[in-house]
User: Which sequence fits this backbone?
């Protein structure tokens, strides 16, 4: 049996684990701090040399320029429609597929899970042109379904992987008790499995929403009209040939990050529970 070493004195605080965590925290927080501070700077302060770590003249002009001049509100609305629709579809399909893959008599389960893991890391750029040609032939370019359908296809394999691993932790006796009470498969999923799989669903929901919210390549390729652009593409096209409004770009980036931060803070415990459960059983 391994013995746990307890550190005392200064070694309790100054040790490789804490130092590594501090370095990671600084490397993660520094760009976010710079993004937030720069969104409140005037154009002259943004371009100042040396750069100012703390703005001396706060201004909201960058946010006004982002939302009023550059139609950021329309881009955010488009992203909400696409990301929410994608998340709902992925949650429903991954729950049913994950539950089916936990069946005791299913054949080829290991091969299916391996295939799902391989599909989850498949590069989107490899199939970008075929998807574009298909969507053009059936008239899905410059539409919400034109993004929602490929987003569901690319996020579903990893979602099924998480849900299957999480649902494996639910005792089979609960399903057997439900069958004895006369419940069919659908009733069992809705009344028994669904309430017990909330941590896994929250994990899948946050990952899927974040992926759809921040996806750039397919959004740029499939939706070229302004009325269907999502946030990443809209921000990338700020400015003109002769000027780049860095302040408005910083302000728009801050506005686009806030929904993701709120989601992670609300569901952080469920995300950790869902991920650790999947890691242990995967």
Assistant:
């Amino acid at each position: 049996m391994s013995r746990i070493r307890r550190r005392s004195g200064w070694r309790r605080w100054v040790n490789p684990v804490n130092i590594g965590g501090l370095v990671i925290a600084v490397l993660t927080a520094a760009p976010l701090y710079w993004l937030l501070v720069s969104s409140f700077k005037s154009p002259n302060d943004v371009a100042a040399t040396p750069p100012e770590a703390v703005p001396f003249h706060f201004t909201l002009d960058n946010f006004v320029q982002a939302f009023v001049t550059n139609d950021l509100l329309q881009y955010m609305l488009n992203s909400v429609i696409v990301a929410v629709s994608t998340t709902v579809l992925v949650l429903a399909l991954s729950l049913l597929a994950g539950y089916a893959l936990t069946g005791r008599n299913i054949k080829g389960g290991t091969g299916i899970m391996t295939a799902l893991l391989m599909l989850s890391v498949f590069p989107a750029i490899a199939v970008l042109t075929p998807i574009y040609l298909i969507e053009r032939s059936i008239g899905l370019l410059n539409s919400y379904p034109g993004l929602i359908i490929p987003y569901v296809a690319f996020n579903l394999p990893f979602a099924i992987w998480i849900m299957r691993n999480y649902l494996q932790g639910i005792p089979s006796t609960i399903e057997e008790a439900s069958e004895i009470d006369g419940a069919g498969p659908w009733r069992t999923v809705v009344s028994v499995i669904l309430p017990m799989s909330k941590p896994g669903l929250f994990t899948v929901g946050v990952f899927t929403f974040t992926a759809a919210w921040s996806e750039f390549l397919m959004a740029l390729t499939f939706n070229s009209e302004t009325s269907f652009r999502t946030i990443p593409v809209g921000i990338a096209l700020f400015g003109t040939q002769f000027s780049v409004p860095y302040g408005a770009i910083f302000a728009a980036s801050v506005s686009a990050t806030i929904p993701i931060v709120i989601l992670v803070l609300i569901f952080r415990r469920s995300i950790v529970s869902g991920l650790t459960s999947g890691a242990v059983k995967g």
